[in-house]
Amino acid sequence: MTKTATKDPVCGMSVEMTADRATSNYKGETYYFCCSGCKGKFDQAPDQYLSGSGPAKSDKSGCCCG
Ligand SMILES: [Zn+2]
Fold first, then answer.
1. What is the mean pLDDT of residues 28-52?
2. CA distance 12 to 28
């Protein structure tokens, strides 16, 4: 069995790329999220999360896994 992990671009958590994971497609890439809350944030402002160096600065408020 292959387990592949990637990084949630919103909160920076390591997430496994499993079928039931919340995902989003953006510019041909598939992004994985720890929860649907992070996916929702990403969908609103994908560039903000992809252009920055890691998790957004003061974005500690909304992550449901926090
Ligand atoms: Zn997350």
1. 92
2. 20
Q: Is residue 54 part of a domain?
A: no
Distance from residue 9's CA to the centre of ligand 1 (Å):
7
Angstrom distance (rounded) from CA 28 to CA 57? 26
Q: What is the CATH number of the domain that holds 38?
A: 2.30.170
Residue whose token pair is 């996916």: 39
* Mean pLDDT along residues 5-24: 93
| Alpha carbon of 35 to ligand 1 centroid (Å) | 6
The pLDDT of residue 66: 47
pLDDT at 61 over 60: no
CA of 1 to the centre of ligand 1 (A): 25
Residue with more model confidence, 66 or 33: 33
